[in-house]
Each structure stands twice: as C-alpha cells, then as structure tokens.
Write a structure and sequence with these properties.
Structural class: alpha+beta
CATH architecture: Orthogonal Bundle
Bound molecules: protoporphyrin IX containing FE
Number of domains: 1
Largest sheet: 5 strands, mixed
Strand order of the largest sheet: 1-2-7-4-3
Order of helices and strands: HEEHEHHHHHHHHHHEEEEHH
Oligomer: single chain
CATH class: Mainly Alpha
Helix content: 40-55%
Shape: globular
Length: 353
C-alpha cells in the first residue's frame, strides 16, 4: 500500500472530492465524517466478503484474524484477548526489546554520529517480532534474524492488493507460504512467558486463532510503527519543531498525534457494502466496495484547517481524533491505539538525543 502510485491516486482522489465512485475499484471516501460513519456502521458495511480487506486475511491467515471479523463474533474475540498492552507488559517490552537497541542509538547520537533511522527501525521491528513470537535468535545471528523477520513481514504486506477483490490462487499460495514461514517460528517458540504467543495462548485462544491474531499484529501493528517512526522524526526535523519539542517535552503526545495525522501509516481500509445505504447524500450500493482513505480523512480541511501544515500545537477536534487508528464501537478500532506512552518509547528516546 505504500507504493508511490497508490499515494498519487489517494492524493488525486482527495482533490476530486469527499466521496468519489471509481470504476473498477469502488467508492473512495476521503470525507472525514463519511469515513467515520462507514467505519462505525457494521449494519451496512462489512469486513468480510469480496472487496473487503477481510478476503485477504481469510485467504492467507484464516477466518479468525480480528481484521476479517464483524459484530458479535469480533467483539467476543476482542473480549477474550482482553487488554494486550497492559502497563506491566509494556515495561517488559521497554526493558527487553527497546532498551538494548535504544541504548546503542543514544550512544551513537550523543557521540555526534549520523544514524540512518530506517535500517535501525527495521532491526528494531524484527526484534519486536521475535519477542512477540517468543523466539530467541541464535547467538551471533541476532541482527540477521531480526532483518529476516522484518523482510518476511514486508513480503506479507506486499501481497495486499487494492486492485483485486481476491488474491489469485498463485498469489494466495505465495502469501500463505510467507505467513507459514513466520508462524513456523511461533510454533517452535520457546514460549518465553512474556511473548505475545504465550499471552494469546493463556487467554484461551486455539492454535489457529493465535496465528491469525499474530498475523494481524504484524500486518497493521508492528509494520505501521516501523513506517511511522522515521517519518515522525523526519517531519519534526524538517519543520524545525524538534527544537521546540526538546524544550517543551510535555508536547510529546500532541506531536505524535499530529505526526500520525499527517503520515497515516495505515492509509486505507476496505469494506464491502453489505446493504445499500445513503450517508450524507452519498449512495453506497450493496455489493460495492468502500475504500476508506484514512489518509485523506485526516486531511479534511473542515476538520483540520490548513491540513497539510504540521503543527505540534494543533488541537485535534473530536470529529477527526485518531481516525488513523480506525473507528470501533466506542473507541478506535486499533488494539494498540490506547497504549500509554511509557517514558522510553522509541520516539521519545530518539527525540531526547
Ligand atoms: C501508528 C501505529 C498504528 C496505526 C496507524 C494503526 C492503525 C490501525 C487501523 C487503521 C486499524 C483498523 C483497520 C480496519 O478497520 O480495517 C488497526 C487495527 C488493529 N491494530 Fe493497529 N495501528 C498501529 C499500531 C498497532 C500496533 C503497535 C499494534 C500491535 C502490535 C496494532 C494492532 C492492531 C490490531 C490487533 C488491530 C485489529 C483490531 C480489531 O479488528 O479488533 N496496531 N490498526
């Protein structure tokens, strides 16, 4: 989805209008209020069936991946999983995953070295994936293992296609093989008790559910963070607001929210129109596909005036708040959207250097 052509198309659609019917693709929604209404409306829009994002997850990761579930079934699985990111789990992550890498980064930056954050975050992402999978990399091959895991995650994401409603059998097979390679690691997991695999198992999920949920965590989670972090730092530096943030660290959460509004690491999601409906005068017909462009909704000028301006002091009105995390029944859909910011989160430590 991060292909430049996709971004040109998204930008074009934003300029054309809030809701645009694109022959062969579906109804593209850039208007913030319509986007919110579509994402919140499970009666008329579904995450399952042809055209929805759920088809990909069905074909590759199995039926119970959260991202391909609706209604009561979805709610029940979310309840069983509970809160994945408790403060005590975040402490473990900060200590076991982030601290060693960030320590090195801090030393390099303090010594005045130039660091390329992109390869750094790829390795950190691989390290996080290892931790979630409960896998200890062989001694001496740590960085190589992290890079391999990161590459597998990237390969899985690149099988997601906007242009097709279902993966062709050959594409589905290749994506499943990649997914299987990743899950092979989870199956061999040494079950470190703090791993995500162990946490999901102890929540009572069966083996298929554990693997499907892990797949979702990797697809929309770990990889989104890895896309976001270097861009957050880049936009702060490019707009000279890093200095301001260093002087006023209490603006950190606002700065992250504003950067995510601009970047939108998960730029779109797909829904199948399961029952015809009209929203704000726009008709969605049964069987069509709704392409919800969170990237554009976060630039809706009626909600965010001068939307392309990055301003860490911008106040986000309720109508646009956290749209980039999706929309659930009472709060954002993303399972990680309410993660408290522990001191020591990567962006925090990088920015302090
Ligand atoms: C800046 C980072 C992130 C962004 C922008 C983001 C965005 C999103 C979005 C837009 C959705 C909803 C997709 C849809 O409705 O089709 C979602 C769902 C989800 N996200 Fe995130 N996410 C981020 C970080 C994470 C992290 C770090 C994790 C966990 C490791 C995570 C786990 C999930 C899960 C499990 C779901 C599915 C929830 C469900 O359907 O019940 N996300 N995310």
């Amino acid at each position: 989805m991060s292909h430049p052509i996709v971004f040109i198309l998204i930008e074009l659609l934003r300029r054309i209008g809030g809701v645009v019917r694109v022959p062969g693709l579906g109804v593209a929604v850039s208007d913030a209020s319509v986007a919110r209404a579509v994402l919140a409306d499970e009666e008329h829009f579904s995450k399952t069936g042809p055209g929805s994002a759920g088809v990909f997850y069905d074909q590759v990761m199995g039926r119970r991946a959260l991202l391909n579930m609706d209604g009561a079934e979805h709610l029940a699985l979310r309840k069983r999983i509970g809160d994945l990111f408790t403060p005590s789990y975040l402490k473990v992550v900060a200590h076991e995953v982030l601290a060693p890498s960030l320590g090195d980064l801090e030393r390099q930056l303090n010594a005045g070295e130039t660091v390329d954050l992109v390869p750094f975050i790829h390795l950190l992402t691989g390290r996080m994936m290892c931790h979630e999978l409960g896998f200890t990399p062989p001694a001496g091959r740590e960085d190589r293992t992290y890079q391999e895991l990161y590459d597998l995650g990237e390969r899985l994401i690149s099988s997601l296609k906007l242009t097709s409603r279902r993966l062709a059998p050959g594409e589905a097979l290749r994506a499943r093989q990649t997914f299987d390679e990743l899950m092979g690691i989870a199956r061999r997991s040494d079950s470190a008790e703090n791993s995500m695999v162990a946490r999901l198992r102890s929540a009572g999920l069966d083996a298929n559910e554990v693997e499907a949920v892990l797949g979702s965590l990797f697809l929309v989670g770990t990889q989104s963070v890895s896309t976001a972090l270097p861009r957050i730092v880049a936009v702060l530096l490019d707009t000279h607001q890093m200095r301001r943030l260093r002087a006023e660290p209490q603006l950190m959460q606002q700065a992250i929210d504003e950067a995510l509004r601009l970047i939108v690491p998960s730029p779109l999601t797909l829904r199948r129109v399961s029952k015809s409906v009209v929203i704000d005068g726009h008709r969605f017909r049964e069987g069509e596909r709704a392409i919800v462009l969170m990237y554009n909704a976060a630039k809706d000028r009626r909600v965010f005036p001068a939307p392309l301006l990055f301003d860490i002091e911008r106040r986000h009105p309720a109508a646009g708040r956290h749209l980039w995390f999706g929309v659930g029944k009472r709060r954002p859909e993303c399972a990680a959207s309410r993660i408290p910011q522990p001191s020591g989160a990567p962006e925090d430590r990088v920015i302090r250097c």
